[in-house]
Structure formats: C-alpha cells, structure tokens
Design goal:
There is one protein chain. The protein is α+β, with helices and mostly antiparallel strands. It has 2 domains: about 200 residues, no CATH class; about 120 residues, CBS-domain (Roll). About 60% of the residues lie in helices and about 15% in strands. It contains 11 helices and 8 strands. The strands form 3 sheets. Strands 3-4-5 form a 3-stranded antiparallel β-sheet. A 3-stranded mixed β-sheet has the order 6-7-8. It has a two-stranded antiparallel sheet with strand order 1-2. Strand 3 and strand 4 form a beta hairpin. It starts with 9 loop residues before the first helix and ends with a helix.
C-alpha cells in the first residue's frame, strides 16, 4: 500500500490493511461457498468450510461419482472469483473517476487484484486445486477411469508443487525471501494435498458399494460387567488377542473395555476390581448401522480417533468393525485392481 499510495499516515495504512484483510477472507469464503452450493445442489454433503493461512477448503464427506458434477463444482470457485474481480474492478474504476480517497480506492483495487489472482492460481492444473479437479474431471470424462485420471492429475500437482518449491528457493537466494518462503510453503501444501487426495480417491474407489454388514465381525466376544479384570486379561485379552471388547448386561450395551483401560489399574488390584470399573460409558462409543457404507465407518473412526466401531440397530449389538478390517479390504481390492 505505501508503494501504490505513498504519503499517507501509518494509521491510514493500518485501516486500509485491515479492510483489505477482511475483503481477502470474505472473497475466499465466497469462493468456497460457491463450491459448496454447487456440491449440495447435486447431493454432495459439505461438512464445513475451513479458512486457514493458505486460503480455504470445503470439506466434502463424499467424492463426486459423476465427472460432469465435479467439473461444475470445480469451475464454480474460479468463476466466483472472476465475478468478484469484475465487481471490484468496476467499483474501483468508478471511485477513481470520482477521485475518492485512498481509504476507498485502495481496498477496491486490492479486491480486484486478489480475486484475479485467486481465480488464476486456482486454475493451475495441479490436483487438488480447482484447475486440477477440472483436469481430472476432463480426463475422467474422456477415459472413463476415475483412478487413472486422479493419478495423472495428482502427479501433475506434485510436479507443480516441486516447481513452486524450486522457484521459491531461488527467489529466497536472490533476496526476494518473503515471496520465496511463501512459494515454498504453498508448494509443500500443494504436494501434501495432491498425495492425500489421491489416497482418498483410492480408498473411496476400493470401498465403493461395500456395506458395513459385508465386512463386520458378527461373532463378537463380549464381557459381563461383574467379572474381574484378572479374568478379563487371562480369558479374553490373552486368549482372543483383541484390544477392545463391548461390555453387555442383559443384552444392553454398557460400554467398552480395552487393554488400555486394564493397564490403568495396578496388577495387584486386578482380582478385586471388576470390568464395570474400567468400562467407558456407552455414550462415548461410536456406533453405526449395518446398512451404511464402509467408508462411513472409516470416516467416523477418523473423526473420533478410534480403532473400532460397533454395529448397532435399536440398541442391539450386531457386530463390530475395526480399522484393520477396512484396511484389509482396501489392500485386497487395490492389489487385485478391483
């Protein structure tokens, strides 16, 4: 701002900077809202929109199953940014013609340039940016292969990330270190995003059409709440070697008991301490219905940071699904290219 609008007071620059910052985050939010509106129009749930240091992201709980939907959803972001750029550009031209003060002109000019940059940057063909998603959707339409299209788009995203990192390092050495460091950070962010998005797509493809009922363990070893921890350790943990066991009383789920819970009790107290004393209450247990998709179970495990999930209908325990159960399915289908 001092370079483009010299001679102003420090407080004026701070005011302009504050207004510009608000406009930046509002522009990013509008960009992500447009993604979300299109996604929800086609039945894709959006859990939340997160704004962070490098921009924003709309968190989808499901991936598009139609390339045309992804194409429209990805294009919505850059189009929205170009629309804002046009609005700010027209406003800036009007206020400049009327010779309005810098407190008005400067933020409007910034709004024009930042939204033009957001549109252009997001159109770079690096997955998972909008341009990368447009590229993936186009390849998907052409080749009828989601995984293959994702691999190509992700690979380009990684190459683009390495290019940004290299340019950033070069700029840092020639003295333009603020821009250089910024590009290095964005490059690493893009690389991680491309690799994690590819993994997410492979997982979704592997679990597509598989219900929880298909992979759950139906013969679940359960505990009575009144047995001792010593009995629990010797007859369950050492014999069956599962880490977590549901605790039931007259068919009602009371909670879970695990090897970690047993470790909290001194060994010399195991014979006089019952399982109910270490049981985690049922309201803290993650549950799911058997007719839900396996990907739902995986996402719930990730969200609640647990390694297993109980399969329950109307309070009745039907089975249990563990993280390893899901990983085995993913591994088998990936290796067999199914």
């Amino acid at each position: 701002m001092p370079f483009n609008y010299p001679g102003l007071s420090a407080i004026t620059y701070w005011i302009i900077g504050l207004i510009a910052t608000i406009m930046l985050f509002a522009s990013v939010l509008f960009h992500e809202l447009c993604h979300s509106i299109v996604a929800r129009k086609y039945g894709l749930p959006i859990a939340r929109i997160t704004l962070f240091f490098f921009g924003g992201v709309s968190e989808m709980t499901e991936e598009p199953q139609d390339p045309n939907v992804e194409l429209k959803m990805a294009a919505a972001g850059p189009v929205s940014s170009l629309l804002l750029a046009a609005i700010f550009g027209i406003a800036y031209y009007s206020t400049s013609s009327l010779q309005m003060p810098p407190q008005i002109n400067a933020p409007l000019e910034y709004g024009f340039w930042i939204n033009t940059f957001l549109a252009g940057f997001n159109l770079l063909p690096g997955f998972p940016m909008d341009g990368g998603r447009i590229l993936r959707a186009s390849l998907w339409l052409w080749r009828k292969d989601l995984v293959g299209a994702t691999k190509i788009a992700a690979r380009i995203g990684v190459w683009l990330a390495y290019l940004m990192i290299a340019i950033g390092i070069l700029l840092t050495f020639v003295g333009l270190w603020p821009t250089g460091i910024w590009l290095v950070f964005i490059g690493f962010f893009l690389k991680n995003g491309a690799e994690s998005s590819l993994r997410h797509t492979l997982i979704n493809k592997a679990l597509l059409g598989i219900s929880i009922e298909d992979i759950m363990t139906k013969d679940v070893k359960t505990l009575e709440p009144d047995i001792s921890i010593d009995h629990f350790v010797n007859e369950y943990l050492l014999q069956y070697r599962h880490e977590v066991y549901p605790v039931l009383k007259d068919g009602k789920i009371l909670g879970l008991a695990s090897i970690q819970d047993a470790k909290q009790i001194p060994k010399d107290h195991w014979k006089i301490t019952s399982v109910k004393d270490i049981t985690r209450p049922s309201e803290k247990i993650v549950m799911v219905r058997p007719d839900r998709e396996a990907i739902d179970a995986l996402m719930k495990m990730s969200k609640h940071d647990v390694g297993q999930i109980l399969v329950v209908v109307d309070g009745d325990l039907l089975g249990i699904v563990t993280h390893s159960d899901i990983l085995q399915v993913i591994k088998a289908k990936t290796e067999l290219n199914l």
